[in-house]
Amino acid sequence: MKMLEERILKNGRNLGNGILKVDGFINHQVDPLLMDACGKEFAARFTNVGATKVLTAEISGIAPALLTALALGLPIVYARKTKPITMPDQVFLTLAPSHTKGRTIELIVSPEFIAEGDKVLIIDDFLATGQTILGLVRLAQAAGATVVGIGALIEKTFDGGRDLLAPVGVPVEALAVITDMQEGKIVFQSFAR
Amino acid sequence: MKMLEERILKNGRNLGNGILKVDGFINHQVDPLLMDACGKEFAARFTNVGATKVLTAEISGIAPALLTALALGLPIVYARKTKPITMPDQVFLTLAPSHTKGRTIELIVSPEFIAEGDKVLIIDDFLATGQTILGLVRLAQAAGATVVGIGALIEKTFDGGRDLLAPVGVPVEALAVITDMQEGKIVFQSFAR
Questions:
Q1: CB contact, 8 Å: B69 with chain A?
Q2: Torsion of CA B2, B4, B7, B11, to 10 degrees
Q3: Contact (Cβ atoms closer than 8 angstroms) between residue A30 and residue B78
């Protein structure tokens, strides 16, 4: 998606070690118009998968997932990383190693909101190692739901997440695909736009 | 706002001790159409305050603040509760006692995104004790910005937050105002709709 790639080139920063700083428009300050365009793009790409819910992980997945859900007219559920007092005692919980946080995080979903028969579209900000998204897949499957698609704003192909997610057997869409961040570069996969 | 009050009565639950469970439509599962309507309502109420940024706190403030910002065409900044690796060393940080979490939380904003001259509209999910919102006010003021308005989806008047915020001297708007949650009740302030 040209609009997102251009924004990454303009306001993103390669901090080294594969870390891309996008907190000026995605995950600290957020550009709602950009996120709205991304949400509509995801909605168009996943219009035929029959999703009944959009699932993401707090915190930075919320903005793109919310606007995808708005475009599709579906509820969104965000997995919590800590269990709030309003959540029932019995929950679905999985552990996912976090690359950027350097530790294992919990992902928690209430059985009230993901259930058998749900067709789940997973949306997140990054597809890097794929571990967070795979954790969301496990949560959905534990609830008896079916994952029907996976979308990420930005994919870093060199972290290998797409291979990890291949066994899930659903379409995986990324709006900006970065193939190389060595030596301060940000290189996008070339494809017909 | 009638739509929000009706949804609270339909899907909210009074858990006792002043705790309102709204995780079916606001802060775990989110109804994007309801949040969009709330965002438009905030935008209408604050159309004349001259805001340049919307500020909220992660996590549950993000959805209403994002859709308010979308309606106003403004960037949104969400204060982080932990400092990500992409944030500069020098940040604005304040401590706020959290009623629902039973502990003090950190609220952190990067000086890259709130600056002198900014006119900040604060949007959050709840106005209860007002401590989180007051923390956001301190962050904005520390950055040299001016707070121009405060909005919350749900106000619980019996927690006294409105009085705490009165010295800020800006309009405080809540879309659903709850005056009593004793004995399992959910009582809204009556006003002309």
A1: yes
A2: -150
A3: yes
Extract the tokens encoding A30: 């957020």
For residue B175, the distance in angstroms to the closest alpha carbon of chain A comes to: 20
Place of tokens 């599962």: B29
Q: What is the ipTM of this complex?
A: 0.95
CA distance B162 to chain A (A): 24
Give the minimum alpha-carbon distance from A64 to chain B in angstroms, rounded to a whole number. 10
For A102-152, what is each residue's pLDDT tens digit?
A: 789 999 999 999 999 999 999 999 999 999 999 999 999 999 999 999 999
User: Using a CB-CB distance cutoff of 8 angstroms, which residues of chain A are in contact with residue B74?
Assistant: 32
Q: What count of other Cβ atoms lies within 10 Å of the Cβ of residue A85? A: 11
Cα separation, A52 vs A73, in Å, equals 9
Residues of A in contact with B78 (CB under 8 A): 28, 30, 59
pTM for this predicted structure: 0.96
E strand map for chain A: 13-14, 20-21, 29-30, 53-57, 76-79, 92-98, 103-109, 119-127, 146-156, 172-180, 187-188
Sheet containing A29-30: order of strands: A29-30, B76-79, B53-57, B119-127, B146-156, B172-180, B187-188
Share of chain A above pLDDT 70, in %: 98
* Nearest C-alpha in A relative to B39: A32
